[in-house]
Design brief:
- The protein has six helices and eleven strands.
- With about 230 residues, it is α+β, with helices and mostly antiparallel strands.
- The longest helix has 28 residues.
Length: about 230
Amino acid sequence: MWRTKSVSMVSLCLWFLFIAIGASSDEPQLGSTRVVFQTEYGDIEFGFYPNVAPKTVDHIFKLVRLGGYNTNHFFRVDRGFVAQVADVANGRLAPMNEEQRIEADKTVVGEFSEVKHVRGILSMGRYEDPDSAQSSFSILLGDAPHLDGKYAIFGKLTKGDETLKRLEELPTRREGIFVMPTKRITILSSYYYDPEMESCQWDSSVLKRRLAASAVEIERQRMKCFP
């Protein structure tokens, strides 16, 4: 009887293990790149799902690299629903250069997936045309199953949930379907990094600084000795 119970317990453990593996396999893989938006209320960090929405990720990340989101803002903060970033073309305080404008004006094909809209998910904004997404996107502040399969999910919050909670506490006003903050929430600056490459990049930056300092010293000596 003890042996029968042992076999049953092993079978039960294996069953739970298979369920856990299955559940974890449903979670999309985040890429190693991280993007940080800096606001007066704190930083918001997120990563990308390149295997879920590759075209969307390429487009948004290029805008980040170009500095497109700097001086942009969160035009919508609907507590428990979304915090939405404005279109780069219309939301920035600073004027855009030509390269930024060209990228901001592009539309991205709708890369809809089975990933669920839950708190922390990044989801593209769009018009009625499923392929009309440009540069506006939302960070989910709660679960929104009615959006599943209708809007392209391309990333997830990795740090900064406390910042989102602060944004949710700000005064708002309603304009049509939008709940908007009464005070502008500006993205003061943005940057990106790759934790997997951080050590190598640091070593490289140190080497570059040393080479630059050496070049300055060599030039100083050349001008001193060979005027």
